[in-house]
C-alpha cells in the first residue's frame, strides 16, 4: 500500500492534544501491519503497510524496514519523532516487551519484539495491546470523550475489547481486559482458533464473514457488496451485528459502560452492523446495563489502533498503575 495522510483535525479541538513531538505509530494486526506518523497537531501522515506473515524473525525484519522508511519520510518532512509506539493484537508480557498469546499470531508468541526494535532504533519504544490502543485513541479523540466508563469493541481479523475508567485502561490480565472477545454467544457453535466453540470472534471476525460470502472474498468485498444492496452481503453483516449485540450485552452486564463504540474494519459496514448490534444489545442486556448508555460507531474507524499506539507518549496521559518501560 502507498503512503498517505489521514486527518481527524475537524473532529477534535487541537488545543486538547498535548504532544510536543510526533510519534511513529505501528499497528501489528492479524492480516496486515501498518505504520504512520502522528504529529503534534493530531494528524496521521506517511501511512504504509506490509502483510503480517510468518515467520517471526523475517516478519520483524520487514517491520523494521517499514519503520525505517516511515522514519526517513518523517525526517524529510520535518517531523521530530519522540518515540515509537507499537500496538499488537493479543496478550503481552508483564514487561510489555513481547506477545505471549494470540491464536491468530501463534508464530509470533514469545519473540522479543521490543528488544529487536530497540537494537535497531535509537528511540524510546512502547508496546501496547491493540484493544487498549484503539480504546485510548477513541476515548481521547473520538466518540468516547467525556465518558467515565468507556467500552470500545474493535472487530477485524480478531475481536478486541478495551475499556477505560476515568481515562485509564483496565488491565485485568496480560496487559489488557482479558480475552473478552472470546465470550461464548452460541453454545456448541463453530470451532474458533482459540480452541473454544461459539465464541463471538469466530462469528463476527473478518475471515469468518468473508468465508460466508465467498472463497476468495475479503471483509471489504462483503461491505462493498452490502452498500451495493447485495442481499447475501447484507444478511451476513446483519447477522454479525446481532451476534455482536449479544456479546456486548453480556460484557455490559458485567462492566456497566456508559458509552459503547464499535471500531475496526467491521465498523465500515455502518448501520448494517450497528443497527442490529444495538437492537440486540438493548433486547438482551439487563435493565440497569442498558440504561444510561449510548451506542455509536467509533469516530476514528479503522485508524483507531494506529492512532492509539502513540498514547504512552501523550504528555498529559493518566498513569495506569504500571510503570513505563524505557
Question: Can you walk me through this structure?
Answer:
It is globular, with a radius of gyration of 19 Å. By secondary structure, the protein is an alpha/beta fold. α5 (206-213) packs across α6 (219-227) and α6 (219-227) packs across α7 (231-255). It is built from 10 helices and 13 strands. 34% of the residues lie in helices and 21% in strands. The strands form 3 sheets. The chain has a 6-stranded mixed β-sheet with strand order 1-4-3-2-5-8. Strands 11-10-9-12-13 form a 5-stranded mixed β-sheet. The chain has 2 domains: 6-133 and 304-313, 2-Layer Sandwich (Nucleotidyltransferase, domain 5); 145-298, Nucleotidyltransferase, domain 5 (2-Layer Sandwich), CATH 3.30.420.40.
Task: Please name the defining characteristics of this protein.
single chain, 326 residues, Nucleotidyltransferase, domain 5, 2 domains, 6-stranded mixed beta sheet, 5-stranded mixed beta sheet, 10 helices, disordered N terminus, disordered C terminus
Q: Which CATH class of the largest domain applies here?
A: Alpha Beta
- One letter per element, helices H and strands E, the order comes to EEEEHEEEHEHEEEHHHHEHHEH
- Name the CATH superfamily classification of the largest domain: ATPase, nucleotide binding domain
Specify the helix fraction band.
Answer: 25-40%
User: Treating each run of at least 4 consecutive H or I residues as one helix, how many helices?
Assistant: 10
Number of E-type strands? 13
Mean pLDDT: 89
